[in-house]
Amino acid sequence: MAEKKPDPLAVSVGKAIAARRQEAGLTQDQVAGKLDIGNEAVSRMERGLVMPTVARLLELASLFHCDASALLVESSNRPAEQAQHLAQMLARLDSADREMVLAMVEQLTSRLAKRT
Predict the structure, then answer these.
(1) pTM, whole model, 2 decimals?
(2) Given this structure, which CATH class describes domain 1-77?
(3) Which of 69, 87, 97, 116 could form a disulfide with 93 if both were Cys (CB 3.0 to 4.6 A apart)?
(4) Residue 81: enclosing H or E segment and its boundaries?
(5) What distance, in Å, lies between the first and last C-alpha atoms of the chain?
(6) How many CB atoms sit inside 10 A of residue 31's CB?
(7) CA distance linking residue 58 with residue 64, whole number of Å
(8) Would you say 63 and 17 are in contact if contact means Cβ atoms under 8 Å apart?
(9) Taking the chain (116 residues) in consecutive chunks of 10 residues, what is each chunk's mean pLDDT?
């Protein structure tokens, strides 16, 4: 029997969950234990095979010390939400590093815009 192709949104949310878990310094086993679910359930969410419920997203956000919306914003393909995600990442950097990242982004966007 052919395996169902993962939903792109579920894959994006899964990547955000995995990134936040790693930032929190937790393993999949630790997350599973804290949520009282199996390790395979965490793995399936992170791989985008299962879309977590709203209740589960809230639990994950609490565990990772972030807003549940952050898990969704990080997975959005909408420019406004992507900008919000970039702003959150930039906020973690000092002034000099933010300037460096912005210069790199400006160069990339300029170059890529010329190709279209």
Answers:
(1) 0.70
(2) mainly alpha
(3) 97
(4) helix 79-91
(5) 41
(6) 25
(7) 10
(8) no
(9) 73 93 96 96 95 96 91 78 82 93 92 83
